[in-house]
Amino acid sequence: MQSAIDTPLDIQKIRQDFPILDQQVNGRPLVYFDNAATNQKPLPVIHALTRYYEGYNANIHRGIHHLAEQATAAFEASRRAIQEFLNAKHWQEIIFTYGTTDGINLVAQSYGRHFLKEGDEIIISTMEHHSNIVPWQMLCEEKGCILKVIPVNDNGELLLDEYEKLLSEKTKFVSCVHVSNALGTINPVKTIIDKAHAVGAVVLIDGAQASSHLELDVQALDADFYVLSAHKLYGPTGMGVLYGKRAILDAMPPYRGGGEMIKEVTFAKTTYADLPYKFEAGTPNIADVVAVKTALEYMAGLGKEAIAAHEADLLHYATEQLAGLDGLRIIGQAKHKIGVISFVMEGIHHQDIGVILDQQGIAVRTGHHCTMPLMQRFGIAGTTRASFAVYNTRDEVDRLVQGLRRVQKMML
Ligand SMILES: Cc1ncc(COP(=O)(O)O)c(C=O)c1O
Asked: Is 87 left (phi over 0), alpha (psi -120 to 50) or beta?
């Protein structure tokens, strides 16, 4: 049992906001350490969803009746909340998507297909999630562009010197992850953006993992695009955000065609809606968009700095405690990390680790974490990953360590 950590947050009180945590799994209290995959939802977010469906479910923008107006107002209020969260200059720069993957595909298919041509170079990094690799490979196949990859060092940090060598006047696009889901590395995205801009390239930052841990300011970063998923910031699944600079979004053709994204349709010609609606074809995820505002308010209420400090404490404590286990090697020891620990254990397959931990009520992620090229870089098939959120505790880290001792006892 560990002493209370130095945090202004009352973690036990916060845990009461997350009813899912209060359950037994395989006869033991649940320890949820799969937060990088998706984090749990606090009661206010769950209530925002039920309030919407119980009180004002209606399709937005096109209705003039009371419920439609109420739903539209809540939907657009969420856009303003996201604008503030990202410090975007204009509300029109906030496009609702189905998630990070959807946002990256939108940019690759709309910006990429329209503005990139044969021989143009696109730079990504070794630590990208598959969702920031495959859409660019598809584009390269179609357009004849060339994909270049920034390597990482043994600590799981990007090699910026190598990045500089890759940059040239041929570089037209750079797409890089802000925080690695597999390693926890926080990348120096401001530097990456500035260097790309110096050669005239446009930059997308994948903020899927950064959004619930770091203060975000797309204007200070000067990011051209920034994408995130609501389900990783205590919000609902199936909803995400694409931020894009207004001038760039304005110049891009629509991605999907359909209702909502048009001004006028005739069989001879269709004209498109203004931003942001040009990129929001069809009925969106209204309830989830509405609830994401509540998720942002919840996080703001706790204070992002306080959340980050608590998670940093857990990371520090877990790193120390795991070092005491023979044959355990942490993959990703970057200087700047969020609360993610990926590790391998000598002589034990990660899947066995996951199964035996689950038998003890401990949820971790095992496998390649949708970063197969990164695993190849480290010469491994996968890792076991524990990732922390605001409601986790040092006691739960102790449970993990005990659980891993049991794994070793059973498997070695
Ligand atoms: C860094 C990173 N990028 C992209 C994604 C894809 O997010 P989504 O599945 O919500 O589209 C994830 C999800 O784990 C991620 O961690």
From this structure: left
Please state the domain extents for the chain.
11-41+303-411, 46-300
CATH architecture of 46-300: 3-Layer(aba) Sandwich (3.40)
- Examine domains 11-41+303-411 and 46-300 and report if their fold is the same: no
Class of 11-41+303-411 in CATH? alpha beta
Distance linking the first and last C-alpha atoms of the chain: 27
**Nearest CA among 300, 282, 223 for reference residue 96:** 282
Atom of ligand 1 nearest to the CA of 131: 4
Q: Whose CA is nearest to atom 14 of ligand 1?
A: 37
Centroid of chain to Cα 323: 28
Residue-wise pLDDT for 136-175, tens only, equals 999 999 999 999 999 999 999 999 999 999 999 999 999 9
Specify the pTM: 0.97
Going from the Cα of 131 to the center of ligand 1, the distance in angstroms, rounded, reads: 7
Residues 6+ apart with CB under 8 A from 225: 103, 107, 111, 202, 203, 204, 205, 242, 243, 244, 245, 248
Beta bridge mates, 152: 158
Atom of ligand 1 nearest to the CA of 231: 10
Q: What angle is formed at CA 95 by the lines to CA 93 and CA 101, rounded to 5 degrees?
A: 125
